[in-house]
Structure formats: C-alpha cells, structure tokens
Amino acid sequence: MDNIVPGSFQLMKKINTGLIIDIIRLKGPISRAEIAKTLNLTPATVTNITAELINKNIIVESDLGQSTGGRKPILLKINAESYYIVSIHIGSTGIRTAILNMESKILDKITVKTRPETTYEEAIKIIKESVERLITQNEKVKGKLLGIGIAAHGIVDTEKGKIVFSPNYGWKDKDIRTDLERMFDVPAFLDRDVRAMALSESWYGAGKYVDQFISVKIGYGVGVALTNNKQQIRGYTDGFGEFGHTKIAFDGPLCSCGNRGCIETFSSEKAVERYAAELGIDADCMAVHELSLNGDERAITAINKASEYLGLAIANLINIFNPRLIVLGGDLIDINDYYFNGAVESAKKYALTDLYKVCEIKRAESKGDAIIKGAAVLVLENLFDNI
Ligand SMILES: [Zn+2]
C-alpha cells in the first residue's frame, strides 16, 4: 500500500469517468464492450462507472445494437436533457452567460458589455438578470439546474471560490461562489478564464489527443494554462499562468498590474488598440479587425506589431516548456489571420529551431465558445469528484 499515491485511485476514476462520458457523447449510442475496447479499460471498470452514471441519470440505456453472433448488446447514450448547466464568463469587456445541456451543447446565451468602471455588485446584477432571462426563455431548464461554472479573468482562488484580483475592473477578494450559490441554490465552481479554455480544449478540442499542452488566452490580458493528463497545473497558491505580466522592458507602457513593460502591454488586444491609436485609429480591437479585413494598412500594421510581440512571448513558452502543442484563443486571435499567422511566424523566428519544429500552434477549436464550454466542464468535473 505504501507505493500508492494518496488520491490516485480517485483521480484515475475521475479521469476514466470523464473519458467514458466523452466517448458516449461522441460515439453514442455505444455498447459497454465498445467503450472498454476504445478506451483500453477493463469491462469491469466500464460496468461499474456506467452503472453509477445511469444511477445519476446522466446516461441512459438506449436501443439494442447490432449483434455479432450472440445476444444484441445494450447501447448507452447521454441523457442530454437530464440536467442543465449555467456557464458564466467574466471577461475584460463583457459578461457572457449561457445554458448548456449535458452534451455541452449551448442552448442559449446572452452577452452584456461591461466597462472598466463596472463594479462587482453591478456584475452580479448582470449575471442574475441574464440567468433569470435564460431560464425564462428556456422553460425546460427550471428545476433541472445541475450547477454553475464561472470563468473569470485575473487571479482567482479556485478552492475558496473567490476572485482574488480582477485587474481590468480593480475588484479584490470577491466571494463570487458563495454569492451565486445563495442566489440560485445550486453548487458553483470557479476557475480562471484560460484554464476554462484549456479544459474545453482537453475535453473537446486539440488537447484530447496529447498528454500535455499549453493554452494561451489573449484578451486585454495574456494568460497561460498548462494541462497535464487532463489536470491543470496551479502553482503554490493557484497563481500559475500570469504570463502576461512577465516583463520584456524596464520602462515600457504602464500595465493594469501597476508595473511597466509587461508582455501583455505589447502583445494583447489592448496593445492592438494602442498601436492603432498611435496611427490615428480611435477604435476598439474588433473595429480594428474590421478595418484590417478591408485592407486598411494602419490597422494591419497595428495588428502585425502586436502579433510579433505575441509570437516572441510564445517563443519563450516554447523554449521553457518544450511543448508538443500550444492552443491560442481569444476574441481577436479566433478570427484575425494577421494576428494568428503573425504570432506563429514570430514564434518561429524567436524560438529555438529544434523546439519550434516539434510544437504545433493551433487555434482553440471551440473558438468563441471555448471558455463557456470549459466553465461548464468545471461543473461536470466536480460532479465526477463525488462519484
Ligand atoms: Zn502587468
């Protein structure tokens, strides 16, 4: 017994449960034998875990499958409408709220714009009104809410469910989990936006096929997540991934953290807006994006400049971690080819060649929905914790 790492059995079970749900979601209706074969698990493991999932009404037995000689196998499928999840993304410029079913399909969503002056209390009011409106618009959700997943930018304390510091709004030490649990009377779970994106990629995107990968979320800030065997690396006090605040200049532009010369002041969406302003375009980064599509040279120059710094930042990640895969996500990087391709080119230029050539750099597969989907996974993951 001494050789067994404490919690390793529970962890294995959690991972296996996640994999089984995922395979049923993707390939269902599917037989237990087929699941065992696909995932290389023992039939007993599959039987035990699927029995618990049936008990919880998360999966159901469906039609009989094709026989290969003997008895027709019973097939399993996700009970998509058994429960629903509310997913909330508190971003730098807006709050997105969505309702998802158990197949992680987004049924409905609302986005409300915010300002840097938006207070925490105003944000909670936006969330309350958005959730209530979504539930009113989707009658079947009533009484079937499984939980709330929250993804927030900045520093969070996942264990305590608190927003520690939200640089774009200046919020400090906000107990959002308790506030939302009281409001809606269901369990809530919180993590950083980039980790939610990483979760989404590890469940539904490119991260499914690799043991370890890096996610980079570029908004007004630049956050990093490192996913290892479906688990997030968190650092000593949950602060892992404040990559945007690593410095590349002593006296660079002032950053939201109070310091100067942070990489995000050179490479983020905010940097795109600043470079564009220097060239005479007074617009937000989505408007700069539109201009770049119309061939506006100043807009293209602004985006290219930020992308070169972003690539430099990615090159540093490649040189430190030697990853097999880096996933990039964020509103602008999702849709703007100058930004994405420029960053890839620049990473190639600045990373060590041997490390760059083994690393694939991709966009997040769920694009704009990656964080919302990942926040829903926070609820699903914790559901498995209790199985
Ligand atoms: Zn900073």
UniProtKB/TrEMBL annotation:
It comes from the Bacteria. Transmembrane segments: none annotated. Residues 20-77 form the HTH crp-type domain. PROSITE patterns: ROK. One of its GO terms (biological process) is D-xylose metabolic process. Signal peptide: none annotated. One of its GO terms (molecular function) is DNA binding. Belongs to the ROK (NagC/XylR) family. Transcriptional repressor of xylose-utilizing enzymes. This is Transcriptional repressor of the xylose operon. It comes from Thermobrachium celere DSM 8682.
